[in-house]
Amino acid sequence: MSSIPTRVGDFLTTYTKTVILVVLVMTVAIGAGMSQVEQQSDTEQFESDSPAADAQAYIEENLTIDDGNNEALVQVIQRGENVLTKESVLESLSLQAEMQERETIRRTFTDERPVFGYANVIGTAAVRAGQPEGEASEQPPTLAEQRAAVEELDQEQLEAIVTDVFGQDGNPLALSFMPASYEPGSTTAQAGSTIVRQSLDTEVQDPNSFPEDLTQAQLEIREITQERSTQYSIFGFGILNDEISQSLGDSGALVGPLALLFVVVALTVAYRDVLDIILGVVGIIGVLVWTFGFMGWANISFNQLLLSVPVLLIGLSIDYAIHVFMRYREQRGAGEDDIGIRRSMSLALAGVGAALVWVTVTAAIGFLANLTSPIGPLQDFGIVSSVGVVAALVIFGALMPAVKIELDGFLEARGIDRQKRAFGTGGSTFGRLLTGGVAAARRFPVAVVVFAILLSLAGGYGATQVDTSFDETDFLADSPPEWTESLPGPMAPGTYQINEDLEFIGENYQQEDNEAEVLIRGDVTNEQTLRWLAQASEQVGGLETLFVGPNGPDISSPLSVMERTAARGAEAAAIPAGERTDQENALAEFAGAYDQATGEDGVPEGNVEELYDLLLTANPDASEFIHNENGQYRAIRLQFGVTGNARIGDIADDNRDVSETIVTASGGSLTATPAGDQVIFDKVQQDLLDTVIQGLLITLVAVFLFLSIAYKLTGNPASLGFVTLVPVALAVTWILGSMWLLEIPFNTLTGTITSLTVGLGIAYSIHISSRYELELRRRGDVWEAMETTVTGTGGALLGSAATTVGGFGTLAIAILPILQQFGIITGLTIIYAFLASVFVLPSLLVLWTRYLGPSGYFPEDESSEETVPGGDEQPAADAEQDAS
């Protein structure tokens, strides 16, 4: 009875027209889902459930004031040697005038003071200084009035105004427009900020739903600044989201065609046949149609992580195609022309079919290991990649062989010879290079294995040093190189500037929403609560990650709100009681209670609940830091700004330390949960690392069990599964060590590298082991079997590796740094997997055959050469037909 692979091969090569029709119908049906694929580019999709995320949600729901005046802010930072000169101030006011003149920009403005910055502070002061005493208007001066007043100032007058408005005793709002390095009262500054306020109908929760008109206005503001001689840095969420979204499309448009071009070139070298090249490209398109169609039907959005999937599937598809086509060529060139095209393809599919199925299953296992990750896009990556691998098996294991049989038969019937030599065979240069692994296995197999293990030990050390990174800036593109400007329109990338702007703004200004949060719950009315809060605030003041601007440390809490409200209350108390408003009375009452409760150290103690009541009455904005629900105080909040260039891990660690201090000081009567984007992103980083470790362990164990069972069921010792897996495990340590040497961290893309290494690398090992086992049956000699394996299958592997490395290598020219890193590290993964399978695995197989495998295959052995692995005796000629 023939084996299952033989029967399947016979069926596929007998009913070719039926196979073609069925697969094409499936392709059309599945591909119909492509139109439903949507794009998602925000970083929130990578977040998982955590105490920090829950605390952040609580803060947003209960400790955020929704006054209906939703705004989007744009930071316009003017840069130069000194922006406090008359020319620079007039330049800033001139820019504001141009923004006001643009209808597309002006119509997005808020009703009240939509544009205001450091130059307006100076301009307003200049107008006031020029007015007669007692005639100052309560209305803010117009932009034209500010410009005229500044133009009238001489150097001494300008410096006097600057010293006054930006002095230590000046308005804190004015100093907020100056960089962190600015010394209050100084007449020189290297940057000055202007804030543009845009009106939002509702608060935007999903970055993808940010209003298009606001985004276009922000882009137009940036365009205006780029046309000026003065340097500006711009930040707005519209620009940020636009660049993240645009980078996906631009990267795909740049990398996709180049990857396809490289594949065509590589296939030209491997196939040297136009028809086979066309079949390969058409098959790749079919695999991508299946994959993206599935995404549409499964409602999986296309994100940054999935950008690597098309390149991955191109590599895998070519791997499948080369092995099928090259084995078919080997069969046709084996001196058996009389068996015909269909029989040659049937034998090829029977010989390589089991290996392809095993490759598909093991690759899918590697990708599906990402389902253990709590990160949604990583789960999607695992599912989509697995579906793509199955699609590659169907397209190149059924459709393309059937099409090739029909086309070759059609052409040969008309006198066109379709016999081609398999790549790496026939004594070619590549074939001689590939036999190096066989020579090493014959002479010193133990030394080869020991050397590989030593490399792995070094790589294992490097693996423990690899950093983990997750940041919004990971998804921001660098400025494209100049050579991309000459590319055709669809391939030419757009303008990318926000990455550089963010770096400057992060070093010099407090960015919007760039704060650390601590949510404090429990007995928040305890008389010592404010003292514990003061201790935590003092600790925050010493943190290196704390943002310290010209106004001092950016720390906010119920205590700081009380201090500011008490200061306003003291001013209200100076007003005669009969002349105060209700609000001023409330302020004065709070100030009195605050002074009475404050101890020698400046911290109130005593009836904290009463202070909360009076504070919320005098200053309703205090509800951002004190939550009262149904008459009971549930929570308070500590917030502090952090520097934009600090590491996320450092900020998260500092936040946790502050939270722990509060819990410890309160003796457990309070709970303190660190929150904020940095803590949430740090959780993502930890999830990434956990995914790397868990995914690797699960994949290795699952693949080992599968291969052991598969080899056992096909009449081989289960130990062959372990031997096949060893080179892949070695390659994993090599690639992790390389990441350390190249300073490439685990991020949302490179975090998949271990499952990719196993998923892709196991294919090379399976093809070598399966072909070796088959040739061992056929030839009865270990060295003949090994040489045939390495020159035949090894040649196909070389062609496959070259195309896959080239495909992923094109990612190295992507405009996204995260894609560049992924392309480099994946290309190295393929190289390592290929080298391990061709140069290390032969030595492992030789040692396995000698000590664990069947006997009788070494020339010096006395036993029969016809012994089949597993102990059964069978003629070598018949083994070819029954091999699985």
Automatic annotation (TrEMBL):
Q: Which GO terms describe its cellular component?
A: plasma membrane
Q: How does it sit in the membrane?
A: Multi-pass membrane protein
Pinpoint the SSD domain residues: 278-406, 687-847
Bilayer-spanning residue ranges: 12-34, 251-270, 277-298, 304-326, 347-369, 381-403, 444-463, 692-711, 718-742, 748-768, 789-816, 822-848
Provide this UniProt record's keywords sorted from A to Z: Cell membrane, Membrane, Transmembrane, Transmembrane helix
Q: Segment Disordered: which positions?
A: 859-884
Tell me the protein's name: RND family transporter
